[in-house]
Amino acid sequence: MVAVARPRVEIRAMRREDLAAVSAMETASYEFPWSSGIFSDCLKAGHPCWVLCSDGELAGYGILSVAAGEAHVLNLCIGPDWRGQGLGRHLLGRLLDVARWSGAERVFLEVRPSNPVAQQLYESIGFRQIGRRPRYYPAQGGREDAIVMALDREPASP
Description:
The protein is of the alpha+beta class. The chain has one domain (9-152): Gcn5-related N-acetyltransferase (GNAT) (Aminopeptidase). Helix content is 29%, strand content 38%. Strand 4 (70-78), helix 3 (87-101) and strand 5 (106-111) form a beta-alpha-beta unit. The radius of gyration is 16 Å and the shape is globular. 27% of the residues are buried.
């Protein structure tokens, strides 16, 4: 039996020098991507912004907003070349840890109905649909609803 080397995975805080790669990954991943300015603004605003690297290469990123005992997953993306390896689950776990460490008892996110892979990931972790936002996302030929999901968490002990 031949041993297959597992990639070395690192999750670290996003840095300004990551913005070009993050923006390129966003553009490669979505039909209606965030602009590089939005990512820059998230860093400036102090949102928890994280990147996941696999064997030293940027493989994904996640951005969280935390306030008043709640957190919101603003963006979570694994690049096309790294999907299907459990990296999204790993990165989402870090975002949920950060939310808990920040005192958030509930975490929210929106997901497109046309993204069943992401929906399955979120549901497998315990997120449940709590509503819909009509015409929330831009889409070809119009707008697409957002499924609003929430996860109730225990805050970290002080």
